[in-house]
Structure formats: C-alpha cells, structure tokens
Amino acid sequence: METRARTRIGGHVVADSLGALGADVVFGLPGVHALPIWEGLRETDLRVLGFRQELNAGFAADGYARVTGRPTPLVVSTGPGAFMTLAPLMEAFTAFVPVVVIATQIASDAIGQGRGLLHETPDQTASFAPLVKWTGRARSTDEIRNVLGEAWRRAATPPQGPVYVEVPFDVLHAAAPERSPAAELDGAPARLPLPAEAELERAAALLAAAERPLIVAGGGAVRSGATSELVELATRLDAPVATTYTGKGVFPERHPLALGSAWDDAGPRELVAGADVLLSVGSWLGYEFTDSLEQFDGTLIQLDAAPERIAVNFPALGLVGDAKPTLQA
Question: How far apart are CA 260 and CA 253, in angstroms?
C-alpha cells in the first residue's frame, strides 16, 4: 500500500537540504514527530541508517564524522529521543567532531507553554546549548534550508564540533514549495583569518632562536591536514614532535624526529621540562598533557582555532587560527 506523502512538506525540505549540503549518510531513529523527515528521506538517494536506540545512533554518527571529517546528520525525535543523544554529543564536543543533530519539537505555538503535550519539556534547546557550537530553530518551511546550511557551516568551521537544530512538528507537516536549486544552499566552512603579522613574527623569532625547541601536535592539526607543514617546520628547526592522543598520525611515526604520544612515560615529560620553546599546534593542552608542563619553565606558543582555549592551563603566546594555513604563513 502506498503511504508516501501526496504533497511536498517540511520533512521533504529537510531531506533535500541534507543532500544539497553534501551528506551521503543519515543516522537516526524514527519517532512519531520525526516521521515527516523519514518520509522525505525515502525520496532521496541518501543512505539512511536507522538504529534501535538514539544513544547508538549518536555514537555511530560521531564515528562516521570522525573518520570522514565531514558534517554528519543525526535525526531524532522530540524530548526523550533527542536527550538520549547528549552522551555522544559530549564526546563529540570534547573531540571536535562535526555531528549535526536535527531534532523535532512540539508544535510551534506550544513551545514553552507547559501544556503537557507529548514529549514536551520546558526548554529542549537549553539542554543542548552547553554541548554544541551553535543551536538553531526553523520556524517555517522557508527557514529550513538556511538554518540547516548555517548549522552545516558552523559544524565544519574550525574548530569543528557538533551543532543542534530543531524543527517543530507543525513545520515538518506544513506544505512546502517545490524544490529549489541545490546550488543555492551553501554549507562551506568559513575561512578563519590568520593571526596578526606581529604575532607570527614574534613566534617565528622565538622558534628560530630556540636551542631546544619542541613541537606538540594535537587533534586540530589532524583536522586541518597539517602533516606536510609540521614535517617541514620540524625539519627546519630540528625539533622533536610529540602528539597528543587525538593527534596521533598527523606526524609520520617513523620520522627520526617523531616522539609518539607516551605522556605517562618519563622520557617525553623530561623533553618537555627541558625545552626552552614549546610550540603547541591544534591542542587545548588538556589533562593528558597538563601534568607534563609542571616542570616546564620555557616559552609556550599555542596555535589553536578556538581563542577561548588558549592559555587556559598554562601561560602562552597565542596564535588564533587554523593549523595548516597558519603554519604555511
């Protein structure tokens, strides 16, 4: 029996927008409020992976986004279904993984009214806000494409990370215009500006004058694809290169200057303590590394795309920017 929607509705707009943005796989779990999206997905070429539990769908989306480096959609339903993704979102947030959560909501005019509707919560978005880079809500079918495009762009812009979009139940069921050209939907990441010229020159002078330089590469260097730039800089400085756990693989393991990521061992800690200039590339210098800085009394240069993470755990000369283009500069 044919059950497809006879007219184009908001759910179709969500599905078409994901395809226009470059998604190839959609993760999630059907729920009563989310059925219009799944109806729309049936009419696309997207591969849809449905799970029996939102927690599993969330971690699967995280894994796919982590491997591909691309924003990955996760479609879940209102209230409990959406909240089950908070655990994987915490992991995605701390590991800078671009998962795009698309959650449904109760009817637009009932949000925040406390009417006791199915799966109603006081403020669904507020539960996600601390764990994502950005939140948005599509208030009409006309807004769906632009909201999803902005979410996609935010997720992919360094430092990458999860984002949250919600679409009310009535918007998903509302009649929508015919398909608009996919070219009109742009989710390309924004290009971060380079650090100020004076900051770059100061950092370059410190590294050039260093007698015992050390480079630490983190996950931001991996996401930026900065391998060749790191090899070139390390060779020029004759500086050993260690990686954080999330930075493993960004520097060739068999390179003579490679130190690995054995931060629990005495050797790497001694090298940190003995360095006079330490360049951190794409790391917020979290718990696995902070202890290694206890005996360090040199100069730390910290290159990171997130300005709020610079000098959080140790005083540093900050360079705010994406790893690859900044190292090229």
Answer: 7
DSSP state of 25: E
**Whole-prediction pTM value?**
0.89
Residue 35's Cα: distance from chain center in Å? 27
Q: Are 25 and 64 in contact (CB under 8 A)?
A: yes
Q: Count CB atoms within 10 A of the CB of residue 32.
A: 12
What DSSP string runs through 68-79?
Answer: H-S-EEEEE-TT
Nearest CA-CA partner of 143 in 274, 299, 14: 14
Q: Domains in the chain, ordered, with CATH?
A: 10-184 (3.40.50.970), 197-328 (3.40.50.1220)
Tokens of 226: 């900065």
Q: 119-157 pLDDT, tens per residue?
A: 878 899 999 999 999 999 999 999 999 999 999 999 999
Beta bridge partners of 243: 217
pLDDT tens digits, one per residue of 2-34: 445 568 899 999 999 999 999 999 999 998 899
Cα 246 from chain centroid (whole Å): 14
Tokens of 304: 């990171």
Q: How many residues does the chain have?
A: 329
